[in-house]
From TrEMBL:
Lineage top rank: taxon: Eukaryota
Pfam families named among the record's database cross-references: RVT_2
Sequence ranges assigned to domain Reverse transcriptase Ty1/copia-type in this UniProt record: 100-340
Signal peptide location: none
UniProt protein name: Reverse transcriptase Ty1/copia-type domain-containing protein
SUPFAM superfamilies reported in the protein's UniProt record: DNA/RNA polymerases (SSF56672)
Length: 518
C-alpha cells in the first residue's frame, strides 16, 4: 500500500509545476495534507528565467478599434455604432424618396444581383472628419452584358479644361463656385430590367423573400455613371447650356451677354460666370431637380487645393502628396532637389525583378495623378511609367527619389507639355512629352516635329504643315534661346540649378502658400 502511495505522489510531482516549500497540496483521498517534494531540479546546462527566479507577468491585450474614426468593413460592425446607423438610415430614406425600387416576387430565370453597404469618412483638406457616409452598392460584378447592361461609358472632365477654366476665371475676375450633388447616381434612369436583393438590415418582415426591381440607377451598377450623366446633361440642355466640342464635360451658357462655364466630374461641379445673379438663379433651377449642396467658393476639388488671391489662383496637391509619403513610409526620407538624376538612364532588364509589381504600379499611378498640378515631375514620372509590366529594384529606386523630391517641394503647385507648352496669357494650360516615331538628326528637327504636333491639335489636320501656316501668317515662329527653352523640363533630366530656373519660369510655386485646411 505504501509503495502505491509513493508512486502516486511521484507521478503528481512530475506532472505539476514546482510550488514554493511553504505551500502544500491536499490529498484527494485524505484530509491530512501531503507535502510536495520541491527539491527535484533539472541538471540541463541551459539557464532559464525560472532557474534564475525571474518571473515576468503575462499581460493580455484586447484588440479594440474605434470605428468612430475608422471605416468599418462590414454591416455587422457598423450596426453597433450610432453614427453609422444614422448614415445608413439617411441613405435608405434617400433611396425610398427617389423611388429607386419596388418590391416584387423574384421572377424566374432572372439574374438577381446582390448588394452591400460601403462606409466612408468624408474629410476636410486638413484631414478632419466632415461626416459619416454610408452607401448601398450593388454587386455589379454579378451583372451580365447584354442582359443587365449594354452601354457603360461616361466622360469625365479633362485636366487641361480644369486649368483653363481656373485661369479664365482669374483673368476675368469671375467668382468660382463649387456644387455637390447628393446621391447623384440615384437620379439616373435605368433602361434595362434589373433585379437586386434587399439590403442587409432593411429586409421586410412580411415579404422577406421579395427582391428589388430597380427603376433608378444605384451605385455599383456598370451603367450607373452613364445614366447619371445623361440625366444631368439633359437638364442642362433645357437650361440653354451647350456641351463643348473639345470636352463633353464642359458646358457653356452664352445668352444676352451672360457667359457661364460649368465643369462636371461625376457628381462634383465647378461654376464660373460674369453674373452673380445668374449664378444664384442657375443653382436654384438645378436644386428643383437634383439634391444640390452649395459648397460656396471653390477650395478643394478632386484632391486639388485651390487658393485665390487678388493677383493669382494657386492650385496644389499638398495634402494628396503628404498622404502619398505617409502611405509609402517616406516621411522621414532624405529630401532631394531634383526628381530625376541627370546621370540616370533606366533600362528594361537592369536590377532585380520587383517582388511587388502591383505596389509599384499603384505608386506610379498615384504619382501620375500628381502631375495635374506638378509639371516639374512630368519627365520623371513618364520615365518610370515605361516599366509598369516588369519593374525592377532600379525602377523602384527612381520612384523613391521622386518621393524624396516631393517631400522637399510639398507645397509646389501649378505648372503644365511633348516639348510643347500652351499658355493662356502667362498661365500654363496643357503640356505633354511623347516619343517620336522617327529619329531626328538634330535638335532643330526634333523641335520642328514637336511644333507640328502642337499645331495638329489646334488647327485642321489637312493643313498642319508649319511652312504653309507661316506663309499664311496663321503662325508666327520666333527664335527662343536654349536657356529660355521651357519645354526642356518635360523632355530631359537637368542639373539642379537649371531645373530650379525652369520651375521658376513655369510659375511653379517655390514656397508654401496659405491653403484652406492647412
Amino acid at each position: 500500500m505504501s509503495n502505491a502511495t509513493t508512486v502516486s505522489n511521484a507521478t503528481a510531482t512530475s506532472q505539476t509545476p514546482a510550488l514554493s516549500p511553504d505551500i502544500t497540496e491536499p490529498s484527494l483521498h485524505s484530509p491530512n495534507p501531503i507535502s510536495v517534494n520541491t527539491n527535484t531540479t533539472s541538471h540541463h546546462p541551459m539557464q532559464t528565467r525560472s532557474k534564475s527566479g525571474i518571473h515576468k507577468p503575462k499581460l493580455g491585450y484586447a484588440a479594440q478599434v474605434d470605428y468612430t474614426v475608422t471605416e468599418p468593413s462590414s454591416y455587422k460592425i457598423a450596426a453597433q455604432h450610432s453614427q453609422w446607423c444614422i448614415a445608413m438610415q439617411d441613405e435608405f430614406d434617400a433611396l425610398q424618396k427617389q423611388g429607386t425600387w419596388s418590391l416584387v416576387p423574384p421572377p424566374p430565370h432572372k439574374n438577381i444581383v446582390g448588394c452591400k453597404w460601403v462606409y466612408k469618412l468624408k474629410r476636410h483638406s486638413d484631414g478632419t472628419i466632415t461626416r459619416y457616409k454610408a452607401r448601398l452598392v450593388a454587386k455589379g460584378f454579378h451583372q451580365q452584358q447584354g442582359v443587365d447592361y449594354d452601354e457603360t461609358f461616361s466622360p469625365v472632365v479633362k485636366p487641361p479644361t480644369v486649368r483653363l477654366i481656373l485661369s479664365l476665371a482669374m483673368s476675368q475676375n469671375w467668382p468660382l463656385r463649387q456644387l455637390d450633388v447628393k446621391k447623384a447616381f440615384l437620379h439616373g434612369t435605368l433602361k434595362e430590367e434589373f433585379y437586386m436583393a434587399q439590403p442587409q438590415g432593411y429586409i421586410g418582415s412580411t415579404n422577406s423573400h421579395y427582391v428589388c426591381k430597380l427603376q433608378k440607377s444605384i451605385y455599383g451598377l456598370k451603367q450607373a455613371p452613364r445614366a447619371w450623366f445623361d440625366s444631368f446633361t439633359t437638364q442642362l440642355l433645357h437650361l440653354r447650356f451647350t456641351a463643348s466640342t473639345a470636352d463633353s464635360s464642359l458646358f457653356i451658357y452664352h445668352h444676352k451677354g451672360v457667359i457661364a462655364y460649368l465643369l462636371l466630374y461625376v457628381d462634383d461641379i465647378v461654376l464660373t460666370n460674369n453674373s452673380t445673379s445668374f449664378l444664384d438663379h442657375l443653382i436654384l433651377q438645378l436644386s428643383k431637380v437634383f439634391d444640390i449642396k452649395d459648397l460656396g467658393t471653390l477650395h478643394y476639388f478632386l484632391g486639388i487645393q485651390v487658393a485665390r488671391t487678388p493677383k493669382n489662383v494657386l492650385i496644389t496637391q499638398s495634402k494628396y502628396a503628404s498622404d502619398l509619403l505617409i502611405k509609402h513610409h517616406m516621411v522621414d526620407s532624405k529630401p532631394t532637389k531634383t526628381p530625376y538624376s541627370p546621370n540616370t538612364r533606366l533600362s528594361l532588364h537592369e536590377g532585380d525583378v520587383s517582388s511587388d509589381p502591383y505596389g509599384y504600379r499603384s505608386l506610379v499611378d498615384a504619382l501620375h495623378y500628381l502631375t495635374f498640378t506638378r509639371p516639374d515631375i512630368s519627365f520623371a514620372v513618364h520615365q518610370v511609367c515605361q516599366y509598369m509590366s516588369t519593374p525592377t529594384s532600379i525602377h523602384l529606386t527612381a520612384t523613391k527619389r521622386l518621393l524624396r523630391y516631393i517631400k522637399c517641394t510639398l507645397h509646389h503647385g501649378i505648372a503644365f507639355t511633348p516639348g510643347l507648352l500652351v499658355y493662356l496669357g502667362s498661365n500654363p494650360i496643357t503640356w505633354s512629352a511623347k516619343k517620336q516615331p522617327t529619329v531626328s538628326r538634330s535638335s532643330t528637327e526634333s523641335e520642328y516635329r514637336a511644333l507640328a504636333t502642337a499645331t495638329i491639335e489646334h488647327i485642321e489636320v489637312d493643313f498642319h504643315f508649319i511652312r504653309e501656316r507661316v506663309l499664311r501668317k496663321d503662325l508666327v515662329v520666333k527664335f527662343v534661346s536654349t536657356t529660355d527653352q521651357l519645354a526642356d523640363i518635360f523632355t530631359k533630366s537637368l542639373p539642379t540649378q537649371r531645373f530650379i530656373d525652369l520651375c521658376h519660369n513655369l510659375t511653379v510655386s517655390l514656397k508654401p502658400h496659405s491653403i484652406e485646411g492647412e
